[in-house]
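dumping this here so i dont lose it
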């Protein structure tokens, strides 16, 4: 992301857009816990990405070797709120600043189905961030199987990735897919390995060195 912020290439634009799409909701959920209204959070989240990320101001003075990306991003948003609170409340909603294609209409619906808890905004960020990483890895894995013409196979066995006790028995899954039980078990094992590899690749993008991947994975599992 730091390299992308130093250029004006289409690839850099796509990278910044990907950052907005991937990580706006964890920030929304963590700050929503502070008691801000949905309308306030929609405006503030949109303004943060439009005025700090797309303009690349957020990257000024960043040292990639210090701290986790999610922590830095949350701190950046909190600083933005402190600096912009008065200005934001004096402007008409939907003002003159650039808006981004964030699915903010769905934000409150997603937030309302989050389980009840007394977690701090920081802990909420960790938990939602972990779920976002899992979803990203799962989406990439399904895309791979879809490109190979095996989307139906993936959808039939994806619930076995976590090893949940309430999954359908392998024998029943095999009948539905027209495969042997042994073949289904082998496919699930391969799927889990691929899923773990993709998840680690996602985490690697958010830490400062490969050595931190396993530490971050343990932290997010706990979250």
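and the seq i came up w/
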């Amino acid at each position: 992301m730091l390299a992308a912020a130093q250029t004006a290439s289409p690839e850099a634009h796509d990278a910044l857009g990907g950052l907005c799409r991937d990580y706006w909701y964890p920030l929304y959920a963590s700050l929503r816990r502070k008691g801000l209204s949905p309308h306030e959070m929609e405006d503030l989240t949109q303004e943060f990405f439009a005025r700090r990320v797309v303009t690349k101001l957020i990257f000024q003075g960043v040292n990639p070797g210090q701290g986790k990306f999610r922590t830095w991003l949350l701190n950046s948003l909190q600083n933005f709120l402190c600096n912009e609170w008065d200005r934001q409340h004096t402007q008409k909603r939907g003002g003159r600043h650039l808006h981004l294609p964030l699915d903010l209409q769905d934000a409150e619906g997603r937030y309302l189905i989050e389980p009840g808890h007394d977690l701090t905004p920081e802990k909420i960020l960790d938990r939602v961030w972990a779920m976002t990483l899992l979803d990203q890895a799962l989406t990439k894995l399904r895309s791979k199987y879809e490109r190979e013409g095996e989307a139906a196979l993936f959808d039939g066995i994806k619930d076995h990735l976590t090893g949940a006790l309430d999954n359908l028995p392998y024998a029943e899954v095999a009948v539905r897919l027209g495969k042997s039980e042994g073949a289904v078990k082998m496919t699930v094992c391969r799927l889990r390995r691929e899923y773990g590899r993709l998840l680690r690749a996602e985490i690697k993008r958010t830490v400062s060195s490969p050595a931190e991947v396993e530490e971050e994975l343990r932290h997010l599992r706990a979250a």
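The longest helix spans residues 121-147.
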